[in-house]
Automatic annotation (TrEMBL), chain A:
InterPro entries: ABC_transp_permease_HisMQ, MetI-like, MetI-like_sf. Coiled coil: none annotated. It comes from Psychromarinibacter sediminicola. This is ABC transporter permease subunit. It is found in: Cell membrane. Belongs to the binding-protein-dependent transport system permease family. Keywords: Membrane, Transmembrane, Transmembrane helix, Transport. One of its GO terms (biological process) is transmembrane transport. It is a multi-pass membrane protein. Residues 33-270 form the ABC transmembrane type-1 domain. The keyword Cytoplasm does not apply. One of its GO terms (cellular component) is plasma membrane. The keyword Transmembrane helix applies. Its main location: membrane.
From TrEMBL, chain B:
Gene3D superfamilies: Periplasmic binding protein-like II. Residues 23-236 form the Solute-binding protein family 3/N-terminal domain. PANTHER family: AMINO-ACID-BINDING PROTEIN YXEM-RELATED (PTHR35936:SF19), MEMBRANE-BOUND LYTIC MUREIN TRANSGLYCOSYLASE F (PTHR35936). Keywords: Signal. It comes from Psychromarinibacter sediminicola. This is Transporter substrate-binding domain-containing protein. SUPFAM superfamilies: Periplasmic binding protein-like II (SSF53850). InterPro entries: Solute-binding_3/MltF_N (IPR001638). Residues 1-20 form the signal peptide.
Amino acid sequence: MFSYCEDPSTLDGLVWLSCYLTTGKQFLFYQSFGTVLILLFITAPVALAFGFGGAIAARSRIAPLRWVGKLYIAMVRGVPDIVYFMFFVIALDQALEWLRHKWKCPDWDQPIRQGSDFIVCAQAKLPLSAAPQVWHEVYNASLAIFTFGIVFGAFAANVLFGAMRAVPRAQIETAEAYGMTPRQAFWRILVPQMWIYALPGLSNLWMILIKATPLLFLLGVEDIVYWARELGGSANPRFTDYPHGDWRLWYFLALLVFYLAFTRLSEIVLGRLTERLSHGQATLGGVKQGKAA
Amino acid sequence: MKKLLISAAALAVTAGMGMAQDVVRMGTEGAYPPWNFINDDGEVDGFERELGDELCARAELECEWVTNEWDSIIPNLVSGNYDTIIAGMSITDERDEVIDFTQAYTPPDPSSYLALSMDVDVENAVIAAQTNTIQAAFVAEQGWTLVEFPTPEETIAAVRNGEADAVLADKSYLAAAAAENDDLMLLEREEQIGGGVGMGLRESDDELLETFDAAIQSMKDDGSLNALIEKWEVASTF
């Protein structure tokens, strides 16, 4: 990157480090931080949407819908995340390819499963094997986000389900007395007030989600843990201009600092959010605020 | 947000359309120098990178390199995430039941031990090996004490920090590590295991298998394969 980096073996100290930290391989490591953050910020709303849908379904007056909601929450909460991740991503990928295969290659006469091979026609591959590598990565990431969304959505659904029930009954009764329909009462009274009850649970989930991002590696996304291990391993002078010993300790230390800083930041933001949402609420926090004002 | 995802996926599909279908995706580990590794620029490099590029050129195929964990490298091949495995994989009967191999592009070579001292008695020692390798299977068969690690790098680290007494792996990999570290040495004892290294393909991909087989044969015939083996010091020559 810098002009003085032509022959790293003659450099030492900070100059060497500045060259080492700006090699193409290191940039892949820095990029992976971006990947993790992007995935996190997409996954959170997706999970919240799944959670909201799940909670509404679970408290629905229509029995089959209620069963679906309850089953979703119970199933995902009862199965270890890692099993879900491993199973779901493979199954989803194969299901999508199978559907496309049925649609695009109706004349295909060979079986889909031949021994251990899973074979669909070339046009049904997702993404097509001719697609540039970046689309393969986007596809993998989308599967990962969807899976994370489903898993964390179930926990969020349970939290929101509880929060909806925690809103004082008197609030809804008042809404009814004003002549609101159940739908109006739900959207105008219940939903705005439930967040303060949901926040402790949701913030827990957010923290767990941050810490669960290394699972991405299992799903074929080259995340920060992958690169820390890859870059931290001792580098042999025959294969690199920047030989070093086993530096995994330092790389993992950097990850530790990153995760700690990020969760601390989240705590601060969530703290402010709690204060904001407590405003005017008949909770202990809200009443305290009112007295102080 | 979901709309965004769907449109991203739709874009992915349309972007791929109309392109040539004969792109072959080459799957490798990227953590096993000199066979395959990620170089300073972040690209796949090594003996197999050069070999694979040459094979693709001879077979007139367009090839793209992807890396995958060693542990799941076979499952991801059979489920179609890439089309070949070219990752220093020894040809064994066990693997041959699940995937097909081309002819070997390096001859069968002994595996060796790497340790901190010359007088390790391997039969009564703790041996480190990478998971799902012929070496791990060998140690387990002998009934010796085996500790497995997901990456080759970690097997050597285990010897360094005393978790294991010796590593059993391909000689070329260990020799490269021993040459650069004064404290590590190769034991005299070697094991003759494995049947040469070949490219792995899906059992249903007969046509591609024949193409690569022919390309390997042509490199064997004109001596360029031997030259490449000597350049990277990965094995003995044919």
